[in-house]
Amino acid sequence: MHPMETSSGTLSRRGFLGVVGTALIAPHVSLAGRATQPARSATGDASPGFRFCLNTATIRSHKLPLPDEIDLAARVGYDGIEPWTREIEEFLQQGGKLADLRKRLQDANVRVESAIGFPTWMVDDDAQRARGFDQMKREMEWIAELGGNRIAAPPAGAYNPPVLDLKRVAERYAQLLEIGQSMGVTPQLEIWGGSANLSRLSEAAFVLVECGHPDACALFDVFHIYRGGSRPEGLRVFNGAALHVFHMNDYPGDPPREKIRDSDRVFPGEGVAPLTQILRVLRDIGFHGALSLELFNPQYAKVEVETVARRGLESVREAVKKALSAEMG
């Protein structure tokens, strides 16, 4: 997820080796190097325990009020919703009460899996960073009041050069985690593939390890893994317990990776992304979180909103079935 559209600095060899020698390494890999397989269900299918979530970016062009988005997610069959904090702010500015919204979520049996905001928490400028921390605290309060316990922590404000010192980023992320721990809301370190900072899986791994906090976790995205030049197999170094939400989408083969933009994203299964490989790796490392559909394609604004939401859920389910049922058959 990123509202705008360079390549980032690289880790040293020592830093990389430090990453792969830590507890973030997935515990599901056997001595023979093959990941252990999950148990089969009574139907013979793998049962990874994925949940299905609607990131409201997918339907934001339809301009539904947040309460209506919750109703839509429930009606279509999503387990959860991932709202943008701007929507929550708009709801409050219009006189809405978070207690009422929480009851609506509970009545609809829809959970807040995460939330998307853009606080400038990692930047070097002290004043800007302080504002970013204040924004994150405010948005964490909202999420907690809605019954949620996670929020995205992207490289907002650091999309363009200069490249930041990852050790300082790790220190700032640790501070953010401490605040989150006191509020019951965990910030998830998010990568943006086109960013000068935190564009690759390896950079996220370094920050998660270096911060030294037990709540350290990441928020990854099919599109951003590709856009940043990371290989999907790189996900194997992560423990699934450190991943709670994973953004689902797909992308076409053209434009090329360096020029592709968020608006080029398509429904899972309609592009060339290695979704089967990614979903199998997620299963193998013990990911049991939410697959959250996040799209920004302007063409979908021309389609009726329920059709978009329903097709999105079907496409994610189909991708999971293709990846896991076929292998276990």
Automatic annotation (TrEMBL):
Residues 70-318 form the Xylose isomerase-like TIM barrel domain. InterPro entries: IolE/XylAMocC-like (IPR050312), TAT_signal (IPR006311), Xyl_isomerase-like_sf (IPR036237), Xyl_isomerase-like_TIM-brl (IPR013022). The keyword Isomerase applies. Keywords: Isomerase. It holds the Pfam family AP_endonuc_2. GO terms for molecular function: isomerase activity. PANTHER family: BLL3656 PROTEIN, HYDROXYPYRUVATE ISOMERASE. This is Inosose isomerase. It comes from Thermogutta terrifontis.
